[in-house]
Amino acid sequence: MNNDLIVISEWFQENKLAVNESKTKYIIFFTKYNPPPENFQIILNGTELERVSITKFLGVFIEENLSWKSHVNYICSRLNKVTGVLSRLKHQLPTYVLLTIYNSLFSSLILYGISVWGCSPRSHLDRLVKLQKRAIRHVAAAKYNSHTDPIFKKFKVLKLTDAYHLQCCKLFYKKKIRTLHSYHASRLPTAEQRRTRQWNDVIISRHTSIFQTQSINYKIGHCWNTLPFEIKTIESLCEKSFAGTIKKIVLIKIF
Q1: Each residue of 76-87: pLDDT tens digit?
Q2: What percent of the chain has pLDDT over 70?
């Protein structure tokens, strides 16, 4: 990596660009049973770069153990404010305005990057699930202990887990219509045996750890394989229409 940084630095200089070494950090991803070496050093232009355990990339907090706990905490802190706003306005504004606020300020935060961090452990996601239920009750001006499934269906809003499921299915559908990047498409092989109903399923390799079952490729394959056969064979719809079809199926099953 140090050799590569020398080449990158030379390329920057030749193109009249500069790298701020003091702002450049690096992160090492590892598992609990395979820690990195203690004497790991990365040097750029004679300056040793700082190693960090967490970094923010395109609005998503990424940790060295890929637990996504920090990002979930960040989302919860922002969603708490939105939930408070909905609580104060639920008796002052009409329902359609509250729903617009929910979609604009609450739902947008949940959906951003969910295909990446949505595989985090259930213990982390439970906080978001509870916040979403509280927010949707405020939109409907319902009691604090009201059953939320009818409310989600009424407003055509997907739960957190269903929204993640939809995003995973959309990613594989991009492969079917050949709009997914070739690198990601190659990591989602299908059986290609048209003589069975499973010919359109994703081949999921056997995993030996929970960490592996939380990978994006595993989740995409699992979510896609659980779809009805009639949906998995669709190839004539655009991505938006396909997502609408999946959403209708999920909302029917909610209640």
Answers
A1: 999 999 999 999
A2: 93
For 185-202, how does the pLDDT look when each residue is reduced to its tens digit (9 = 90+)? Answer: 888 887 765 555 666 777
Helices 69-89 and 122-140, packing angle to 10 deg: 10
The letter for the amino acid at 213 is T
**In which band, very low, low, confident or very high, does the pLDDT at 242 lie, cut at 50, 70 and 90?**
confident
Q: Which residues contact 167 (CB under 8 A, 6 or more apart)?
A: 111, 114, 115, 118
Q: Show me where the domains of the chain are located.
A: 2-52, 69-157, 163-254
User: What's the rounded Cα separation, in Å, for the pair 139 and 89?
Assistant: 9
List beta partners, residue 43. 48
Distances (CA, A) of 203 to 118, 119, 166, 209: 21, 19, 19, 18
CA–CA dist 164, 119 (Å, integer): 8
Q: CA separation (Å) from 68 to 55, 56, 137, 173, 213?
A: 11, 11, 27, 25, 15
